[in-house]
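To start, one record:
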Amino acid sequence: MLFNSVQFYVFFAIVAVLYFVCTHKIRNNLISRFLLLVASLFFYACWNPTYLLLILTSVVITWTSGLLMEKASESVHKKKMILTASLVINLLILFFFKYYGFFTDTVQFICSKIGMQAKLPAFSVLLPVGISFYTFQALGYSIDVYRGTVKAEHSFITYALFVTFFPQLVAGPIERSGNLLPQFKVDHSFDYDRVTDGLKLMAYGMFKKVVVAGQLARYTDLVYADIAGSSGTAIAIATVFFAFQILCDFSGYSDIAIGAAQVLGFKLMRNFERPYFSKSIAEFWRRWHISLSTWFKDYVYIPLGGSRCSTLRRCFNLFVTFLISGLWHGAAFHFVLWGAIHGLYQVIGVITKPFRIALLSKASIISEDGKTKRWWQFIQTAFTFVLVCFAWIFFRASTTADALLAVQKLFLFPKEIVLSVTGLLNGTIGFGEGFFRPYTLGFYKRTLASFILFIAVITVVSLVARNKTGCQLIREKPLLVRWSLYYAVFAFVFYYMVDAGLFEAQEFIYFQF
């Protein structure tokens, strides 16, 4: 059951009505929690009922480990043993379902290169939807209980709901137990402003997914399905399009998740904060997939030593963290390379920071009070975006070989543009199909222009909403303006849902992780 499907909104409307009936009429928090738990399990079972056993296994293990660590609070050794058992069992489950095939292929490839044969048992299993997300959320709870930052949850229903809560179950945000668990212990009655703001956020999320990401995917899918036959110009444009496609796809999912939870009265953490306006890669990761970035920071980077160590050790910690992050995203070498590239960006940033600051200060680009010239900030933002887009090639490509071929072809991009412009000037190419051929790929120029327009709309909205939320800005507008925006969003979403097949919703990119 996808967020961008008619079925989900029928399901959500029923759950919301029943929940508010419980909170207003029955007023029994246990029944309200049980209702949401049943709804969440049903939501997950719509993909594959068998995998309910898998997610419930993770729930039982981490819930039990929390209670056992609470009982063993006087013994650090026992607590560590219990935590280790919880981590190992959950990570082994994740490894088997997500990484076992990648592991066997890698071992067999290495053995073949050194003249050996390795016959490992093969298993063909369907990757459970959201396994990386709910596993990390459950493990975060176990670690928090071990550290003593949260108390063990005694109610199985409450804890099971924390792990399986349907708005954020499949692709996050990866919530922290200290934030979400207490919210389930309070009944959230109907509040008009809160509910309508949640619905507006869901509508904007649908616009980003169905209209922007869905349309940009038409171009990027075509190019990345045929890297060998695509021009460098097409690859460059497709990569920029993909940067916005994945932003709108994933932040659209997050908006729907946060909005749906808000309708019911629950507050989930914000997952995106205008990431393409970042002035460095470090800042980008403070703004992109915030719930995962902070998870890796708190549970991987800091335990490795964080930044309170030598520069060499800090660089090692950063690189390893991003390498693991790449592997978390997918069981393939091109995802590992994507993580390694971002890790390398971070390492270079740390090493060169003192020299860059000294040089910019000497050039009076950075003043004595630490302020940077506005024009230089623009250059930093543009350069960071280019670096992020380069790394996206390895994320989007189907294989490492395709990614490397795409990078190789990108070097032809300037030559192709020069040839097109030269042909236009000397009259051998007309200002029509001939000039635009390197990147049209059969699309009408008007269609490509609409893609660019959608990107511009998203960018402008991000700029306008930099100090206030979109809901706050809309609330301040006159009635006519507000309802015009509502109808425009609804019309675009409905049109493209019908165009794509109303009951054939396209999956979100992060569902594969």
Summary: The first helix runs from residue 6 to 26. The chain has 20 helices and no strands. The radius of gyration is 25 Å. Residues 203-272+412-513 form one domain.
